[in-house]
Sequence to fold (228 residues):
Amino acid sequence: DTAVSQTPKYLVTQMGNDKSIKCEQNLGHDTMYWYKQDSKKFLKIMFSYNNKELIINETVPNRFSPKSPDKAHLNLHINSLELGDSAVYFCASSQAPSQGRGEAFFGQGTRLTVV
Amino acid sequence: RKEVEQDPGPFNVPEGATVAFNCTYSNSASQSFFWYRQDCRKEPKLLMSVYSSGNEDGRFTAQLNRASQYISLLIRDSKLSDSATYLCVVNILSTSGTYKYIFGTGTRLKVLA
Fold:
């Protein structure tokens, strides 16, 4: 039973298209995240939601719009895709980050390729 | 200065060797510390949390030095299956008043037969 699942696993699309990635967690966590891992393998936080509320937005272009319909889901919509958006996008969740405790659990990642 | 810094490696070691990785962090208010492991084309997975008093899990030992702001991971008796990228992760208080997980760039380990 996958704890954090995201779809699709692979996404190949043309520049200028709009695409969405979905994420769901069944761990009962309050907080969910989107991370981007670029070609140099550096994992960088993009967004964080706590109980459906956006709490961290790390100066990501506004072409990226996260949406959290409930605390178990955090989707990422990307408008007008650019070549530089090609990366692996990881969804994660954690419990009680405001307490500074608890590890983050990651989904399998979505490998986005913009051509 | 990066918030979390690691030597990217690669560290190439023979089977059975002992290898140590260090990681430094810049924010003295950091609360929690972790080592994650990431295999090629896979998601990061928790290897171990790092506690103030240091902790051990089988062949793996983690240490935290708050005064010097560094974390270490020691792997004893390396196995081929230990080959992966090891990510140092720090939980830092963000400007919004909540915590976020900051990743180092990772240290690549290759254990050779």
Summary: The CA atoms of residues 3 and 33 of chain B lie 13 Å apart. The mean pLDDT of chain B is 92. The interface with chain A takes residues 31-32, 34, 41-46, 49, 85, 87, 89, 91, 93-94, 96-103, 105-106 of chain B (CB under 8 Å). The first strand of chain B starts at residue 4 and ends at 6.
